[in-house]
UniProtKB/TrEMBL annotation:
Gene3D superfamilies attached to this UniProt entry: Leucine-rich Repeat Variant
InterPro entries with a match to the protein in the record: ARM-like, ARM-type_fold
Protein name, UniProt field: Armadillo repeat-containing protein 8
Length: 142
């Protein structure tokens, strides 16, 4: 699974026109499989590679399709607001999810139907991340 996720990550680092075809592949079945793997795979390395794939797929041509994938926006928000752990892979997941949301934000224009939903999620993510950062600075150090 790690190799397959890594291969998809590399394929997704393609020119914009190819990213559009990848997200449309199989009537969106690739996006569904990636979303499912990111949420449910027990191997954190697979999850990290899947999130890297989603990040690589994000561009102006694919953003609206990504936004329409059921559960994907919530998945990214959940990972982007996860508490920081000592495990480096958790931090990498959080960073990848947040960067993917920010990349989608840059690609979505105000006239797109998904614009308002995206901004609601981004505001929620920002508030949670700020709260987490504040709590981390207020925690007594050992």
């Amino acid at each position: 699974r790690r190799h397959a996720a890594g291969a998809l990550r590399n394929l997704a680092a393609a020119p914009r026109r190819n990213k559009f075809h990848l997200v449309k592949h199989g009537n969106g079945s690739l996006l569904g499989a990636l979303t499912d793997a990111a949420r449910n795979d027990p191997d954190m390395a697979v999850r990290t590679r899947v999130l890297a794939t989603l990040h690589n797929l994000t561009c102006a041509d694919s953003a609206e399709i990504l936004m329409s994938e059921p559960g994907l926006l919530d998945l990214l928000a959940d990972f982007a607001t996860a508490e920081k752990f000592d495990d480096g892979e958790e931090d990498e997941l959080t960073t990848l999810a947040y960067r993917t949301l920010r990349t989608i934000e840059k690609a979505v224009s105000s006239d797109m139907s998904c614009h308002d939903d995206l901004h609601k999620v981004l505001h929620r993510v920002a508030a949670t991340r700020n709260s987490n950062a504040q709590n981390a600075t207020e925690s007594p150090s050992d």
